[in-house]
């Protein structure tokens, strides 16, 4: 795999970009949490074009790298303590941690109440909260799949199963042969309009396996503002956090 060095426009920092050639129709630029950058391009595309494309996108790359650098460290060391916060469906929720005999979590308006037998045991508190959070994610995403499933049902598509897991770069994925849609655990931090964009995107893949014109025409027919939703999602929430 070849590497191209680019210079970021604001900081002047030099960043290596992995150049990957694949059998694909369009290029794909990705910035990863661990500060890696990769550009995947069709085999026929020249290196000169790739270099020009990266220069054009250097400002976007720099912004992504800065965002991930700010948030990744905090996520790695994130503690669930009384008064901290997290977003749920775009709303800021305050975490209230208290010591109780029985571990439990429940929501009261804009507060998430976390009860644990030992609040100094972060591993235990995190485990209690994550179990609840996964349950919320599954309930919310099952509901949104139920909402959008009628769009693909007339084509003879069986209602897919829903899975939720931690994903570092993707918001969702689709396995047609297993009849499963998998969503990022972090997705429920986004507002519902952005969640719906990801859900419809993945369901559309049961009809259109790639990102060709047919796929985007179908997506646009049911969600004309999908580009705005996608942009808002990537601006407001970082996958994997």
Features:
about 240 residues; alpha/beta; four-stranded mixed β-sheet; globular
Summarize the structure.
By secondary structure, the protein is α/β, with parallel strands linked by helices. The protein has six helices and eleven strands.
Description:
The protein has 241 residues and is an alpha/beta fold. 37% of the residues lie in helices and 26% in strands. It has helices at residues 47-56, 58-76, 122-148, 192-204, 213-222, 226-236; strands at residues 2-7, 14-22, 28-31, 37-42, 85-88, 91-99, 104-108, 111-116, 161-165, 172-175, 180-184. A hairpin with a 2-residue loop joins β5 (85-88) and β6. The longest helix is centred in the middle third of the chain and has 27 residues, at 122-148. The relative contact order is 0.10.
List the helices and strands and how they pair.
Elements: E1 2-7, E2 14-22, E3 28-31, E4 37-42, H1 47-56, H2 58-76, E5 85-88, E6 91-99, E7 104-108, E8 111-116, H3 122-148, E9 161-165, E10 172-175, E11 180-184, H4 192-204, H5 213-222, H6 226-236
Parallel strand pairs: 2-4, 6-8, 9-11
Antiparallel strand pairs: 1-2, 3-4, 5-6, 7-8, 10-11
Provide the structure class: alpha/beta
Rg: 20 Å
Number of E-type strands:
11
Number of helical segments with 4 or more residues? 6
N/C terminus separation: 29 Å
Mean pLDDT metric = 90
Topology pattern, helix = H, strand = E: EEEEHHEEEEHEEEHHH
User: What's the assembly state of these chains?
Assistant: single chain
The share of residues in helices is: 25-40%
Q: Strand portion, in percent? A: 25-35%
Write down the overall geometry.
globular
Widest sheet: strand order? 1-2-4-3
Sheet having the most strands: 4 strands, mixed
Q: Enumerate the spans where pLDDT stays under 50 for 5 or more consecutive residues.
A: 73-77
């Amino acid at each position: 795999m070849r590497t191209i060095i680019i210079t970021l426009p604001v900081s002047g920092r030099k960043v290596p970009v992995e150049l990957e050639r694949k059998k694909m129709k369009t290029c794909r630029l990705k910035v990863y949490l661990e500060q890696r950058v990769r550009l995947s391009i069709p085999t026929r595309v020249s290196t000169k074009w790739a270099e020009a494309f990266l220069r054009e996108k250097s400002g976007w790359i720099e912004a992504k790298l800065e965002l991930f650098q700010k948030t990744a460290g905090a996520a790695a060391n994130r503690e669930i303590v009384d008064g901290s916060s997290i977003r749920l469906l775009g709303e800021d929720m305050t975490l209230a941690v208290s010591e109780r005999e029985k571990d439990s979590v429940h929501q009261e308006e804009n507060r998430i109440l976390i009860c644990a037998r030992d609040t100094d045991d972060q591993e235990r508190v995190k485990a209690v909260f994550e179990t609840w959070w996964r349950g919320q994610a599954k309930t919310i995403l099952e509901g949104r799949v139920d909402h959008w499933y009628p769009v693909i049902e007339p084509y003879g598509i069986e209602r897919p199963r829903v899975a939720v897991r931690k994903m570092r770069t993707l918001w969702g994925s689709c396995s047609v042969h297993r009849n499963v849609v998998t969503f990022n655990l972090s997705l429920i931090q986004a507002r519902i309009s952005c969640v719906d964009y990801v859900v419809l995107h993945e369901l559309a893949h049961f009809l259109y396996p790639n990102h060709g014109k047919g796929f985007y025409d179908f997506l646009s027919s049911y969600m004309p503002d999908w580009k705005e939703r996608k942009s808002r999602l990537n601006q407001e929430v970082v996958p994997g956090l």
